Amino acid sequence: MSKNYLDTIVKHYESCLDKHGDSHLGVDWPKLEDVEKRYRVMLDVIRFSKPAEGPVSLLDFGCGAGHLLAHIRARNITDIHYAGLDVSEKFVDLCRRKFPDVPFYQADILDEKTELPQFDYIVMNGVFTEKRELSYEEMWEYFRRMVLKTFSYARSGIAFNVMSKAVDWEREDLFHLSADLLIGFMTKQLSRNFIIRNDYGLYEYTTYIYK
Known about the structure:
The protein is of the alpha/beta class. The chain has six helices and seven strands.
């Protein structure tokens, strides 16, 4: 299931890149101002410790065209060591051309042969917002496998967003996840140390899970 889903997702996002180029539309975000909100919320997962301990390492999982890194650099944020990962070779090649000094990984994290280093934090912006043609049950299973695997690579915590169920109507191709269902999963299999953010004005919410 996951392999076919990944193939579908890659084709979808690469077609957006081909059509719209290196832009927010090229990674299928409709409004630029909303994208900037998401970047700020994703980075808020980081709990900076004492300055003497130095920068934190961050993996941008599903990095697309590396726009989160551009956001970080435009704001002169220097206490984050960024790395990116995407399953799409086309997006990873684009990122490597744009940012030759930054590590980018092309990998399927559910592939048993995949090896990655540990990171302080991992953010997954837009990785779980679209389910495309998957059923809700298939997407829920995929989501759980991905979050469990990703959490194992994080020293401190992870962040991800999903579509809210507190909406007037739900789009069939999006993944609207009940917060109650998510909390049950997190407390049983991940951690009781989490934050759910629904305070930034979009029809989604972002969750931080800490070790």
